[in-house]
Inverse folding.
């Protein structure tokens, strides 16, 4: 899909204010409401816009522990990747999971109510998953930056704009 400057303006506006009305968005990007809605739908259909959501404050909800966990798997266990991938889908504490390069196989972002809850998750779920060899936890002491927004201006040159 070839994106133009107007598409990038729409994407930037929606990232900043996902609840903006179509009329307000159209005014902001200098389009008619029908043309703006058509472009937004096209961006949604193409998968450029994946979803709309509210960003919640974990601390306000009582989730005090934020941890990044490296998990290394035993390679001699049959279907270790499939089994681990399936298991982590049920763990509500895991808010992000990634296959990574380096010594570990996975990087998990885990949110827990407190250290006791986090410890229970690690000892009773993570360590008991077949194939897990090693776990290395990094507890977040302070968050300096945490965003889901992508600077769409980074891609404007790539798209030929």
């Amino acid at each position: 899909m070839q994106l133009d400057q107007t598409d990038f303006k729409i994407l930037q506006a929606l990232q900043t204010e996902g609840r903006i009305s179509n009329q307000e968005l159209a005014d902001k990007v200098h389009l008619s409401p029908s043309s703006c809605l058509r472009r937004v739908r096209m961006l949604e259909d193409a998968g450029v816009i994946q979803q709309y959501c509210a960003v919640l404050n974990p601390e306000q909800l009582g989730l005090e522990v934020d941890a990044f966990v490296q998990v290394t798997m035993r390679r001699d266990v049959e279907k270790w990747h499939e089994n681990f991938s399936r298991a982590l889908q049920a763990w509500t504490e895991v808010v992000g999971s990634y296959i990574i390069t380096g010594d570990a196989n996975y990087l998990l972002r885990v949110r827990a109510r407190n250290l006791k809850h986090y410890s229970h998750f690690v000892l009773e779920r993570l360590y008991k998953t077949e194939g897990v060899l090693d776990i290395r936890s990094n507890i977040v002491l302070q968050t300096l930056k945490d965003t889901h927004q992508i600077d769409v201006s980074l891609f404007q040159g790539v798209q030929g704009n």
About this structure: The beta strands are 65-73, 94-99, 106-112, 132-139. Helices lie at 5-16, 22-29, 33-45, 80-88, 115-126, 153-156. Residues 65-139 form a domain with the Alpha-Beta Plaits fold (CATH 3.30.70.920). The CA atoms of residues 94 and 144 lie 20 Å apart.
